[in-house]
Specification:
- There is one protein chain.
- With 339 residues, this protein is an alpha/beta fold.
- It is 35% helix and 17% strand.
- The protein has two domains: 6-84 and 225-337, Periplasmic binding protein-like II (D-Maltodextrin-Binding Protein, domain 2, 3-Layer(aba) Sandwich); 87-221, D-Maltodextrin-Binding Protein, domain 2, CATH 3.40.190.
- The chain contains eleven helices and eleven strands.
- It has a six-stranded mixed beta sheet, with helices on one face.
- Helix 4 crosses helix 11.
Length: 339
C-alpha cells in the first residue's frame, strides 16, 4: 500500500544552496512540503515564540539560549543555512574610533542583544582584542526607526554589563547626534551607507580591510561562524522522527549539487570573475566541503558559540552540543549531488 506523503510547512530564506529543495528539484522523501519566505526577523520571532509552522530557519544564538533555559519546544537539525564572519557588522564614528582597540569604553548601539551576528561580533572582540561585553556601554533599539524590542531576553546578563533600551529614537539618529560611538548590527544600514557618502565618511566600517581581519580570526580560532540553522517543532518531530534524517539528507544533497556546479569550469555557473581561483583557495583552506553540515564537523564552532553566549549573559547554564540537535542519518547518495 502506497503511503500518503506527509504534508508540512517550512519557512526559509532564499539561498542558492537550498534552492534545489525549495523548488522541488530534490524531494524530501515521504513528504509534500510547502515552503514560504518571510523577512528574517519576523520569521525567527514567530517560530521561536509560537512555532506557527512545522519547520523553520532560525537564529542559532537564540535557539541555543532558549534550549539552555529549558525551552524544548523546538529541536534543531545540523543544517546551517547561513554562515558569515561578522567583522563588517561594526559601524563606527570615524572621528572617534580608528581601531578595534579603541572600542574599549565606547558606547555601542545594537538592534537586539541576542542576534547571532552580534553574539559573534562581541565574541570576536573578546577573543581577538580582549574587549569584554562589560568594557562597553550598550544601547538596544531600532536600527533605522525607533521602537524595536528584544525577541529573546538575555536571561543571565551580568550586573557589570550596561544595556539600556532606547525606544524614542533610532540607532542611526544616535550615532549621528554623537550619543553613541558605534553600531553593531547584521547589516550595514542603507541610510548610513548613503549618509556616509554625503558626510565625507564620518560613519563607516570599523575594519578598512574586513577580509584580512576575518582571515586572521579564522587562522587564530579555526571558526567559521554559524548564523542560522533549521528547527523543527518538537511535537512534529516526535510524531514523525524519520523526518529529521530525510530533511537533512535533502539539504545536504542540495548543497553538494550547488557546489558541484560552482566548481564546474566548463562554463561560468556564477557570474563572478576569478571564481575558479577563489574556489581553489577555499578548497586549500577548508578542504573538500567549505560549508559542512552535521554536528561533528562543526562541534568546535558550536562550542565556541556556546562559550560566547555564556560570557555574554545569554545562557546561565552550560549546555552540550550533543543536546542541541536531533539525531540524523547523514548518508547521502553521491549521485544526488552531481549534474
Amino acid at each position: 500500500m502506497r503511503m500518503t506523503p506527509l504534508s508540512f510547512t517550512m519557512a526559509i530564506s532564499h539561498y542558492d544552496h537550498v534552492e534545489p529543495v525549495t523548488t522541488g528539484e530534490l524531494a524530501i522523501p515521504g513528504t509534500s512540503p510547502v515552503f514560504f519566505e518571510l523577512p528574517i526577523p519576523e520569521m525567527f520571532r514567530r517560530f521561536i515564540n509560537h512555532q506557527e509552522w512545522e519547520a523553520s530557519e532560525m537564529s542559532s544564538a537564540q535557539y541555543i539560549s532558549r534550549r539552555a533555559a529549558g525551552d524544548d519546544r523546538i529541536i534543531a537539525l545540523p543544517v546551517f543555512t547561513s554562515r558569515m564572519f561578522r567583522h563588517s557588522s561594526i559601524i563606527v564614528r570615524r572621528d572617534r574610533i580608528r581601531s578595534a582597540e579603541e572600542l574599549r569604553g565606547a558606547r555601542i548601539g545594537t538592534p537586539e542583544w541576542t542576534l547571532s551576528a552580534c553574539v559573534w561580533a562581541r565574541g570576536m572582540l573578546s577573543d581577538m582584542y580582549g574587549i569584554a561585553a562589560a568594557d562597553i556601554t550598550w544601547f538596544q533599539g531600532g536600527l533605522d526607526r525607533p521602537g524595536r524590542g528584544e525577541a529573546v531576553k538575555p536571561p543571565a546578563l551580568g550586573d557589570d554589563v550596561s544595556l539600556t533600551a532606547v525606544g524614542d529614537r533610532s540607532l542611526e539618529q544616535m550615532i549621528y547626534s554623537g550619543e553613541i560611538d558605534a553600531i553593531m548590527a547584521p547589516q550595514y544600514p542603507p541610510g548610513l551607507r548613503r549618509a556616509a557618502e554625503s558626510t565625507d565618511g564620518l560613519v563607516g566600517r570599523l575594519f578598512d580591510d574586513p577580509v584580512a581581519a576575518e582571515a586572521e580570526y579564522l587562522e587564530r580560532t579555526d571558526v567559521f561562524p554559524i548564523m542560522h540553522l533549521l528547527g523543527l517543532r518538537r511535537s512534529f518531530y516526535e510524531q514523525h522522527p524519520w523526518i529529521a534524517s530525510n530533511i537533512y539528507r535533502a539539504f545536504e544533497a542540495a548543497k553538494r549539487r550547488h557546489y558541484a556546479r560552482l566548481v564546474d569550469t566548463r562554463a561560468s555557473r556564477a557570474p563572478l570573475p576569478l571564481i575558479g581561483d577563489h574556489l581553489a583557495g577555499l578548497k586549500q583552506r577548508f578542504g573538500a566541503d567549505p560549508w559542512p553540515y552535521g554536528l561533528e564537523p562543526n562541534r568546535h564552532v558550536i562550542e565556541t558559540l556556546i562559550r560566547y553566549e555564556r560570557e555574554q549573559g545569554l545562557i546561565a547554564n552550560d549546555i552540550s552540543p550533543d543536546d542541541l540537535f536531533a539525531p540524523v542519518e547523514t548518508f547521502v547518495n553521491e549521485t544526488q549531488g552531481s549534474e
